[in-house]
Records
---
Amino acid sequence: MANLEYSKELMKHFKNPKYVKTLKNPSGIGEVGNIRCGDIMHLEIKVDEKGKGQSKKIKDIGFKTFGCPSAIAASDVVCDIAKGKTLKQAKKITKDQVLKKLKGLPTAKIHCSVLGIDALKKAIKDYEEKNG
């Protein structure tokens, strides 16, 4: 069995995630899953309609994750990084940013950092498809 050493920062986000919530009338929804590990993620964004195109900002964000501590913590961090960013900036969030904020992840759990990013990108794409 792999040694899973979780950082204090990861445990903080796992035990007290700030963004576990459902938004009323979300602007975009993204859902992803990883069959290999069983993690499933649902992420919603609310976009501030001021501004144009990619310069519109994410004014609220929430997620629900069925998964391990790494998946939950990484989802919370993705939301934390994305909130207040423009759509263009949010699309550029990387796993390295998530890993840095979590102060690392066990090697076997690095894929969890990408799930939240993928769900965010799908939510933005959903919003863009709905709004031309």
Note: The chain has one domain: 8-130.
---
Amino acid sequence: MKNVKLVTLFALAGFFMVSCSSVKVVSDYDTKTDFGTYQTYAFYKTGIDKAQISDLDKKRILRAIEAEMTTRGFAKSQKPDVLISIFTKERERVDVYNNNFGWGGAWGGFYNPWVWGPGWGWGGYGNNVSTRTEGSLYIDVIDANKKELVWQGRGIGTLNNTSKIEKKEARIKEFVSHILKEYPPIPAVASN
């Protein structure tokens, strides 16, 4: 029984660690756009200046975007094919967990103060309330000639409120990497 509790505890901890670190990505694009013609990019300063995050985090995001675009064969240019802008949103999430996992000192309907059932701790009763910041990072790709949005990716995930700069940079890189996996879009092949 003790082994079952430990395995279950580790499985729950692993699940919460994975679920908290993942980034959910959604992308949308103009199906009439030929993304194969785009080879160069520049940042759209007007849009980036409006993003409501610190200037340091903006720099981190832009560096991560530069790295991802370079790996995809795009070059930064003064006369770009596309402009890249960012937009951010964040919200505080409150999670309430009912920790009534079991019966504490009762087992099978019988009270026995020396045998613990599935409840962990002193009876396993009570609620835990946790708050976390969930953020959305939007990356917009705008056709530089037409001044039209042609692709948008959004990553949603928990932001690590950490004082460790390395962890913050790694999390930002993870967000950007997951979002830009969807760019450029691969059009669906029509089946005949």
Note: The first strand starts at residue 23 and ends at 29.
